[in-house]
Amino acid sequence: MSYPVVRNRRLRGSAAMRNLVRETQLSVHDFIYPIFVTEGTGIREQISSMPGVYHLSLDQLESEIREVQSLGIQSILLFGVPDHKDDAGTEAYGSHSIVQKATRAIKSYAPELLIVADTCLCQFTDHGHCGVIKHNHHTNRAEVDNDLSLELLVRTAVSQAEAGADIIAPSNMMDGYVHAIRQGLDQAGYEHVPIMAYSVKYASAFYGPFREAAHSTPQFGDRKTYQMDPANAREAIREAESDAAEGADLLMVKPALAYMDIIRELRNRYQHPIVAYNVSAEYAMVKAASERGWINERAVVLETLIGFKRAGADIIITYHAKDAARWLAEGVQS
Fold it and tell me: At residue 194, does pLDDT exceed 80?
């Protein structure tokens, strides 16, 4: 018995035909653009390992926000780089802390821009860890005190919501953090503020440039005791399941590029919006190769971003957002 040859090539002939049958679409509305805001004035300092990404003081922020909006990007993720650090990260949760000041400033001239506030202590602690450190006399090691850290993270989240943050994004990976923050926000009258949970956050080598950007390199040890082992997939499902049960509104996978299988697993299991974080080293590698003429930056970036969407991400946090927005405005998908 013979069968006719299936001519799939018929659907690939012209650009118009390819656009007509395209299964996955990439839009500027999919993007969240990270911004690093710092104390001081007149500061627009490029981060050496992340070309095109800057430390910005408050007086330099408005021009950046205007550019972001002009490109059609509707949301930013705010990271704060404070002047003062201490062992309890007190600059994270003060009403006049850098993220809170930046949030109020942005809302004064761009009220419609969606602000996602990173909720963590690592940028604000002098030891660079995501919580309060205590000495464990049984192991004779310094360790993060999970429950005490939760108290401070709740204070941080509430102060960010008070400043006008539209979404709270806790990146700390403490056990029970979603429940604690949800309860704290609700009690403070911010039931309407959603939580973007860093549900699956691996202890990854892809964070290196970010630690330069956020000045958050741990001064001792590492974060493997509270971030996930890159070898584990089933654990990722348990982490996401826990966050969903505790009240998370959006579920994130970080990093994205090496973990598209995890993005797909979450997409298959949950109705929540799935967020992919295209992290700093993923960005830096593309920039470095492009500067050397080894790759076509535009083609590689758009192929990577469409890959995140195809894997199941609804939202992409990416340092490429401004460039990608320009390319998409030119009608280029890949």
Answer: yes
What are the beta bridge partners of residue 57? 38
pLDDT tens digits along 294-331: 999 999 999 999 999 999 999 999 999 999 999 999 98
User: In which band, very low, low, confident or very high, does the pLDDT at 222 lie, cut at 50, 70 and 90?
Assistant: very low
Which residues are registered as beta bridge partners of 189? none
Residue 51 and residue 32 in contact, taking contact as beta carbons nearer than 8 Å: no
CA dist list (Å): 96 to 82, 129, 130, 167, 215: 11, 22, 20, 19, 20
d(CA 212, CA 193): 30
Active site residue 201: yes
What is the rounded CA–CA span in Å between residue 297 and residue 186?
44
68 closest CA partner among 126, 14, 29: 29
Q: Which amino acid is at 61?
A: L
pLDDT number for residue 17: 76
Specify whether the CB–CB gap between 60 and 39 falls below 8 A. no
What pTM does this model have? 0.89
85, 101, 224, 254: which one is catalytic?
254
CA distances from 65 to 33, 58, 115, 304, 321 (A): 10, 11, 11, 25, 13
Q: Which of 85, 101, 134, 201 is catalytic?
A: 201
Three-state DSSP state, 327: helix
Residues 146 and 143: their CA atoms lie apart, in Å, by 9
- CA gap 283, 209 in Å, rounded: 9
